[in-house]
Description:
The chain contains 13 helices and 14 strands. With about 375 residues, it is of the alpha/beta class.
Amino acid sequence: MKVLVVNWRDIFHPEAGGAEVHIHEILKRKPSSWEVDFVSATFPGCSPREETPWYRILRLPNNFLFNFSFFFWWLCVGKKRGYDLVIDDISKIPLATPLYIRRIPLIAIMHHIHGKSLYTLLPWPLATYVYLMERWLLGVYTTTPLFAVSPSTAQDLFSLYRYQKLSVVYNGIEREPLFFEEKMERRDNTPLVVYLGRLKSYKRVDHFLRMASLVSLRFPEAHFLVVGQGEEKEKLQKLARELSLEEKVGFTGFVDEKLKEDILVRAWLMVLPSEKEGWGIVVIEANALGTPVVAYRIPGLQDSIQHGVTGILVDTFSPEALAREVCALLEDTQRWKTLSQQALAWAKRFHWDEMARDFYDHLEHVVKEWHDGPSL
């Protein structure tokens, strides 16, 4: 079976995030009969073709005009290759594939709607362009089978466009959860609170730093780590200096899986002040290492975090509100232990093997329905 997957970014792109991890892990577990081409945009230093053990990557120019270059590639090359299935993994501006891929089964995956968060990422003229394009182009998928990665994202999509074929398929994690006793053995002796993710403006890592400043007043022994990389790093380091946090906050940059695990198992809490997430794989990664998560109540995170069970969802978007919840958990040892144990149990549900089986079960149903129904 010849399958085409398209996403603006592939797993090797320097700005690859949760969407790219999701499709990569799914394809690592693909049926043995699948032959997969993965079409994505070029980035500095990349090669136009790259082979992985699971799929072939074909890169088209360029990162800003990929929606146009993919359209012309499909008309000139792609439609002649005899694909049996197309998976449109929507990221950035939707590619509007239902308008021109019409005679073979097509599914789309949606991680989250960017919406007005674009204005924290881009200059306002470009943000307005992307915002309007996203709103307009998402409308062409209303009759296309669409997989959302969280119930709240599915609800947002349905409220906008009344999608007729909407399903939920979850993200997962690679590792098995710890035993609680191991968590207690490896946890730092003094409170360690971490942020893990890309350093983007919409992630509101500045709120994490301002929260750290407030928590330090009550817990002077506490320390904090910002784990990740991105264009906001220098700005955030400057803010840390302005808040006199040089001795309290560390910036690790990118970390490999081994070091990430070591940080998360040592951590008492993870704090995610992001204003936009599709699901939040890092939440389940932290939970699998016994670390509860405090975050703003937003679509995606309100699904991956069980409020009062595996972590805390904060309704007021402010560093002060985050600090109050963090301090309350650091003070209440028994409550923290309960959340940690429940987080470990929650994470057991989300191994990639199980999530991939669920994905392919949904996909099999969609393809069968397409072949049994009228031709497009």
